[in-house]
Each structure stands twice: as structure tokens, then as C-alpha cells.
Amino acid sequence: MTFERMWQDLHPVGRSATSGGYFRQPFGSAERECHAWFLEECARRDLTVRHDGNGNTVAWWGDPDGDGVLTGSHLDSVLDGGAYDGPLGVVSALAAVDLLRERGFLPRRAIGVGAFAEEEGSRFGLACLGSRLATGATTPAAARELRDRDGVPLLDAMAAAGLEPELGRSTLLDDVAVFVELHVEQGRDLVDRGHAIGVASEIWPHGRYRFDFAGEANHAGTTRMEDRHDPMLTYAMTALAAAKQARLAGQRATFGRIDVAPNGTNAVPSRVTGWLDARCATDADLAALLGEIERQAQGRAERDGTHLVVTAESVSGAVVFDPDLAARIARDHETGDWPVIPTMAGHDAGILSAAGVPTAMIFVRNPTGVSHSPDEFAPMADCLAGVDALADTLERLAG
């Protein structure tokens, strides 16, 4: 089956008729439909499928025997997300297996196609949850405490999806000697360079932090401005300070989600919770940026008569991919060497790399530069170039 046909089959699943964005939240109906599609495609290719109790799946072409070459990505999306982030890597991996077979290639090392669970953290708040659990980067005890926005525990959500959860480090990745993840680029670096394909050099350190602002609920009409203890004002100043400090430092800071109580039009809030996503070039830069944002927020809280508590929910340190592996993948192609570029987005590849697995990433050009949005896009010609690039890479690594 061609890439185009597989993409056509997967494209409508979980897509909003209103916004055109995707709602493929982990262990929900749309994500499970995508996973069922993945298993059907693996069966069509006679791949040997293995699962773990964390929701991850790997399908092997051949016997890995401790020396396998794994590729793939994830099938879940952010809320109202794009079509390409994650699924492009899974569909391209299956298409690359097809292409290698068409070439008559017989792998010396087994090739696996993987689909990791809850990569985005869009439901349970912890990005790359499946790969973190599988590698031991997150403990089962910590994962069991996770709840979604409706208060549903992780284990209950997995069970409701028909899974038999057994959280913790698994043997699923024990046969993986190298991992290559293909992904749509989440920026415009390749567009600016005029290349359809690139290779990752590193992932910026990044974190998600919960800011809990507490104040005093009161009447919006009868309470004088000078008598208020309004946590919304503290939050608003904090969001502006985060944007300013990140801009001055050349880093990234985003408050993209808030929760307000009692959330009434005619009431001063009693509580505002905001989630900060911060990304920086180095671990030290990330710590410095967060420290300055928190310092300014606490200062404003004192002036507003409010209270602030900051909690780190998910923090990933800097990841530098194996430079020799990146160079080996990037050099000597018909179109010339592929550029080696950094990324500011987190990926399962970063988790496996931090766990000691030699890891690389291949990026496919995104002409809009937009991601985590319905406007995320990659032209079919570039997607097919990505399949060729991944097939060539797997042939180099598994031949």
C-alpha cells in the first residue's frame, strides 16, 4: 500500500469538522482508531507485533536479537492539533519498509516500527509518557498519580480503552540498538535553507510548570479596585513578564492554558492556574528564565495580596544526539548533504537518547512553519522525499 493511500485512510480520523484540527487524545476513541489502523497495517506486512503495559507498540521485520533498528513516532495529538506531528513518522516508517522490500533489500539487522503512547502530554500533562515509562525515566508511582482534566486516572483511561496496564520499565526496547524518528519540522529552518530533508543535532531543554495563583473571591461590582486581591491580575502580569524575558533572552516562554475559579463574569476570581511552557538553548538558560519569571511573579503577588506556588510538572534536560550517527545519516546523498539542525520541540527520540540508545531524527520540511495547529502542513512531494530518506537511512543502518 502506498504512502498516499495510507495517509488518505488515516487523515480523517479524529479531525474536527469545525476547525479542521485533530483531537486524538491518548486512549480516547480517535487515538485508539489510529492504533487499530496501525495494527492492521503491521499485520498486512507480516510484522511481529509486541506491546508493553505502558501503551507502546513495536512491530518487527525480522528478529531483532538485541541489535534492532527502530523507527516510528506517535499517533496522539495536541488539542486541535495538526495532521503531521507524530503520524507522519509512523506512516513513513511503514512506507519505508514497503520501499525497502520493493528494492529487494534484506535487512541484516531487524527493522522495527514503533508507536509510542501519550507523546504530547495533551491528556495527562506529562510529555512522552509512554517512552518515559518504558525507559524508566518516569516511575510507575508518579504515573499512577496522573489525572486528566476530568479527573480520570491514567490507569482507568487505559483500562477503558481495552488495555491491560502494567506501568514501568519494559523489555519492549531491550532489542533496540539504534532509533531513528522521522518528524515534520516544527519551524522554518529547512524552508530558509531550501532543503526538504534535515537531520537533528539536538533538542533544547524544556519544561512545563504549573503556576497556582490564589486570591479572594468577591463581587465584580461592589468591590473597590483597591480592596481586591485578584489572582487574575497577578497571572496577567506574569504572562507578560514571561513573554518579555523570553524575548530579551532569545528563548521561548508560553502560557497556553489557564483554569479559573469560580470562572464567573461578575466575580473576582479566587484562583487562577496557568501552565507555562518554557524552552531554552541550555539547561542553565532554562533555570535562569524560570527563576526570573517566578521572581517577578512573586513580587507582583505581594503587591496584589495574592499567593503563588510554582510546581514543575515535566522537565527535560538538553539532548545532544549522537553526532557521528547524525553525520552518517546526513552525508552523501544525490541532493548533497542534508543540513544538521537543532529543534526546540520535545520528542520520544530525546527520551530514548537520554536513556543511552543511539538516536537520530529526520525532519521533513514544513513550508508554513506552523505546528500544533490545524495549519501544520507538509507537501506530498516532501512527504515522499521523507519516505525515501528514511528508507535510505534504514538501509544504511540495517544493511
UniProtKB/TrEMBL annotation:
Gene3D superfamilies: 3.30.70.360, Zn peptidases (3.40.630.10). Zn(2+) 2 binds at D85, E120, H372. One of its GO terms (molecular function) is metal ion binding. Zn(2+) 1 binds at H74, D85, H183. It comes from the Bacteria. Its cofactor is Zn(2+). Pfam families: Peptidase_M20. Binds 2 Zn(2+) ions per subunit. Allantoate binds at R208, N266, R279. PANTHER family: ALLANTOATE AMIDOHYDROLASE, ALLANTOATE DEIMINASE-RELATED. The lineage of its organism: Bacteria, Bacillati, Actinomycetota, Actinomycetes, Propionibacteriales. This is Allantoate amidohydrolase.
